[in-house]
């Protein structure tokens, strides 16, 4: 049992399948600094915990939903 | 020897043939079909000797890595792949010595050979030694459809006809459902056994 192909040619052939394409890179993210009051932060953390999300995940989801609507 | 049992069309009997070939040859069986039919049939085989290693590798890249790492441990490798154009089917074609293409003696099956014929043509650019043979699966016991289907195969130049048809028999389905090849199952179906033996010989020990 010999494997005779060049790796690059083999990869290209395999990746050409409908389920073989390279997955798109995640959108580049930029870090920002944002000052919030302790009260607002506590409310965010409580709301995030209630839906099993991290603080960052909850903020992203909420902002994203607000902008979509 | 690496044998892929593959076709871009689903429902042609690939998994049944791959499963039986792997057991009879004691080969490493790779289930490259996302449906995981071979994996399920092999799970039903639990505890039956001989043990047959079966790995579920529906991703082409993973399959290439695993085969490159472990193929040397086995005399034979049988890969069940396809049902559509997939990375697993392409990986299997790129690494195989032989692709066995089961097709039913039906118009839709014959027409669909165009796709696998084109894919084999493409695969041979990187795997020039790839042999490709089409075998009748779920063949009829009467009528002229078998003959007509074989005749229609001439339209697909990448495929050579392998005269070892597997007929539509309950014995194959019943055996696989119990994790067995038709050579192991009881009650014995002598006709099914003869067909499988002929196919194994034609694939692995051609004259």
Please summarize what this structure is.
The complex is a heterodimer of chains A (69) and B (207). By secondary structure, chain A is an all-alpha fold. Helix content of chain A is 52%, strand content 0%.
CATH class value of chain B: Alpha Beta
Task: Name the helix and strand elements of chain B from N-terminus to C-terminus, one letter apiece.
Answer: EHEHEHEHEHEHEEHH
Global morphology of chain B = globular
Instruction: Give the DSSP E fraction of chain A (strand runs of 2 or more residues).
Output: under 5%
The CATH superfamily of chain B is known as P-loop containing nucleotide triphosphate hydrolases
Broad shape of chain A? elongated
Could you describe the largest sheet of chain B, including whether it forms a barrel? 8 strands, parallel
Could you name the ranges of chain B where pLDDT drops below 50 across 5 or more consecutive residues? none
* Alpha plus pi helix count of chain A: 3
Average pLDDT score of chain A: 83
Beta content of chain B: 15-25%
Mean pLDDT of chain B: 93
Number of domains of chain B: 1
Given as residue ranges, the uncertain stretches of chain A (5+ residues, pLDDT < 50) are: none
What does the largest sheet of chain A look like? none
Span of the ends, CA to CA of chain A: 58 Å
Q: Residue share in helices of chain B?
A: 40-55%
- The CATH architecture of chain B can be named as 3-Layer(aba) Sandwich
Q: Would you tell me the structural class of the helices and strands of chain B?
A: alpha/beta
Multimer state: heterodimer
**Largest interface pair:** A-B, 16 and 30 residues
């Amino acid at each position: 049992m010999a494997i005779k192909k060049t790796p690059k040619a083999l990869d290209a052939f395999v990746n050409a399948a409908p389920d073989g394409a390279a997955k798109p890179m995640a959108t580049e993210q930029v870090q920002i600094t944002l000052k919030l009051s302790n009260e607002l932060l506590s409310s965010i953390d409580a709301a995030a915990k209630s839906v099993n999300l991290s603080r960052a995940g909850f903020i992203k989801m909420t902002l994203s939903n607000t902008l979509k609507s | 020897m690496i044998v892929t049992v593959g076709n871009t069309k689903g429902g042609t009997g690939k998994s049944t043939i791959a499963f039986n070939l792997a057991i009879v040859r004691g080969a490493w069986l790779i289930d490259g079909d996302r449906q995981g039919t071979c994996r399920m049939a092999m799970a039903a085989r639990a505890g039956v000797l001989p043990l047959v290693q079966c790995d579920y590798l529906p991703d082409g890249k993973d399959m290439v890595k695993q085969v490159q790492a472990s193929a040397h441990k086995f005399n034979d490798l049988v890969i069940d792949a396809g049902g559509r154009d997939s990375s697993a089917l392409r990986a299997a074609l790129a690494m195989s010595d032989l692709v066995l293409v089961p097709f039913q003696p039906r118009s839709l099956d014959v027409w669909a050979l165009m796709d696998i014929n084109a894919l084999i043509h493409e695969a041979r650019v990187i795997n020039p030694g790839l042999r490709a043979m089409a075998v009748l699966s779920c063949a009829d016991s009467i009528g002229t459809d078998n003959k007509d289907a074989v005749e229609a195969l001439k339209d697909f130049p990448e495929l050579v006809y392998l005269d070892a048809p597997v007929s539509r028999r309950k014995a194959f389905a019943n055996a696989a459902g119990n994790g067995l090849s038709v050579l192991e199952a009881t009650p014995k179906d002598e006709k099914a056994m003869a067909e499988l033996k002929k196919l194994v010989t034609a694939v692995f020990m051609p004259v």
